[in-house]
Specification:
mainly alpha; five-stranded mixed beta sheet; two-stranded antiparallel ribbon; 61% helix
Length: 542
């Protein structure tokens, strides 16, 4: 920053802190409330509430993302594993659905509640090092990253990590500090839960091990029972899932390699570059805000880094591991590595830069950061969200606008042919997941995940029990699959209909949907078939 600009801002900050403008005083009162216990909860609640409102407005006239609908379908029945993803996201979704209604706003609230829990966990770490304004500044800088609102907006296998990673790091930090068995147990539990969220969390576990080994105080920790208790507890929590993997052929790993593997060396290097650049882009805005706030005091950074708190050095080693280890594996194995998989680890950056600074930050800058954070959220809700909703409604930005309407129309067509509840749905994944969620009958998604991308054929017995499918009319692969299914069904009805959402009284873009209905061969009212896999390996078609 040019010295003249920095001098001007520093002078303005001094004057503002000495004689604050009346409109700044509520922010100052809020900062005074941090150590009284209400400032941070108010900040986190306000953040979650306003971004929940953003989701409600932005997706008015649209439906939940297919990933969220898939998560709910996975969680309908308890299992220790799933051929596509680890099971934790499904468990959380199921528990949430037991308390809250199956509505869009409810699952949007789940997304923001998860983000709020993540920010609370970040504050748990920050308060180990700083008090008052700096605690707020850590969270404000984190809130300026597109992690706890945009990345968090759909609850799935990626976003479930947002709270688990900082909680695992917090418990590990406490365990490393005290070597107390309670913190060691909690470290093992939450590392295991992170693995049950997404296997990518192995990089977090590896980073914790790396940090413990490389830290100057490693012997004090490694020679204590703490790391071994964490290891035993972690494997104990994971044991049922490991058994499931061993007895089912480790299907999630096959899925991961099918989708993300097989890249050439040069392409893997490109993936690493994009991975690092994506993470850098995510922290660009908070980094700029921090540079402005620190100003000339940044000259103390080298000395502060040399004299860093040993506990912060532990966190720094963890951060390095979460970036370096995925990069190494990407090149060594030949896989893709989306930056979004590592976003949940970026909380360490604001913790390190704020807590590692020996110099104070003038309240002028903390208040300005709060105003910037609030301003971004307010503009997003009042301007960006309605404009996005209008644009999406008019031009079919994605297929989400048609999910609920197609599900309800399929349910109506089904009940024209039978009095039994709709029990099975397949076809286009988004439409099928949406029908399971939005249809009053809540049919089961009847396409085993291990055959999700192979257009497998349903068994004849499945068709005889009653079965439906939906495809978008322009999806030729889905329609060809429908034709093959119709050829083996004892009797089948095919319908084509148009769905057109209406947003605030204005009709939006339309879509044509094709439905295939195989009514039950025996109409036994009230008889419900149990959920089962409807595709066999011998019947798969590609």
């Amino acid at each position: 920053m040019p010295p003249s600009i920095d001098f001007f801002l520093a002078s303005k900050a001094s004057r503002s802190d000495a004689a604050p403008a009346p409109w700044r005083r509520p922010f100052l009162a809020w900062l005074d409330g941090i150590e009284r216990g209400w400032g941070i909860p108010l900040l986190i609640f306000a953040f979650a509430a306003i971004w929940w409102l953003f989701l409600v407005v932005a997706y008015t006239g649209a439906d939940l993302h297919a990933d969220v609908l898939e998560t709910w379908s996975i969680g309908r029945f308890f299992a220790w594993g799933n051929p596509k993803h680890p099971p934790l996201m499904g468990w959380v979704s199921h528990l949430w659905g037991m308390v809250f209604p199956l509505t869009d706003w409810s699952f949007q609230m789940l997304a923001m509640a998860n983000a709020a829990l993540a920010l609370w966990a970040v504050d748990l770490i920050a308060r180990r090092f700083v008090r008052g304004d700096k605690r707020a500044l850590v969270l404000l800088l984190a809130m300026l990253m597109p992690v706890y609102q945009f990345h968090a907006q759909r609850f799935n296998a990626n976003s479930v990590q947002l709270a688990l990673w900082p909680l695992a790091v917090y418990f590990f930090l406490r365990s490393f500090e005290s070597r107390h068995l309670v913190w060691a147990v909690l470290t093992g539990v939450f590392c295991a839960l992170a693995m049950l969220g997404k296997y990518y969390s192995i990089f977090l576990v590896a980073s914790l091990v790396f940090a413990a080994i490389c830290h100057p105080q490693r012997l004090r920790y490694l020679l204590s029972p703490a790391p071994w208790v964490s290891t035993v507890v972690g494997f104990a929590v994971l044991a049922p899932h490991i058994y499931w993997l061993a007895t089912t052929g480790a299907q999630p790993f096959d899925y991961a390699m099918q989708i993300h593997g097989g890249l050439a060396f040069e392409r893997s290097l490109e993936e690493v570059c994009m991975f690092v650049l994506g993470l850098a882009a995510a922290v660009a805005l908070p980094a700029l805000v921090w540079v402005v706030a620190a100003g000339r005091q940044l000259r103390f950074f080298p000395a502060d880094f040399r004299n860093i708190d040993p506990r912060l050095w532990l966190l720094f080693l963890i951060l390095i591991g979460t970036i370096v280890f995925p990069s190494i594996v990407t090149v060594a194995v030949g896989t893709s590595m989306p930056s979004m998989w590592a976003l949940q680890g970026l909380f360490l950056i604001p913790v390190l830069i704020v807590c590692g600074a020996s110099f104070p930050i003038a309240r002028f800058y903390t208040v300005n950061t709060a105003i910037l954070t609030a301003g971004v959220a307010i503009v997003a809700v009042s301007v960006a969200a309605p404009l996005y909703a209008i644009e999406r409604n008019a031009h079919r930005a994605n297929d989400r606008a048609f999910y609920r309407l197609a599900a309800l129309e399929l349910t109506r067509l089904w009940h024209q042919s039978t009095s039994r509840p709709l029990q099975a749905v397949s076809g286009d994944d988004g439409l099928a997941f949406a029908t399971a969620f939005y249809s009053p009958d809540h049919p089961h998604y009847r396409r085993p995940f291990q055959y999700q991308y192979t257009w497998g054929m349903p068994r004849v017995t499945t068709l005889e029990q009653g079965w439906t499918a939906l495809c978008f009319a322009e999806d030729s692969d889905c329609l060809k699959w429908m034709d093959r299914v119709a050829g083996r069904a004892p009797r089948v009805f095919r319908n084509e209909f148009v769905v057109q959402p209406v947003l605030w009284g204005h009709a939006g873009a339309s879509a044509r949907v094709v439905a295939l209905i195989a009514p039950p061969a025996v109409a036994d009212r009230g008889v419900e078939t149990p959920p089962a896999e409807d595709f066999s390996a011998s019947n798969r078609e590609h």
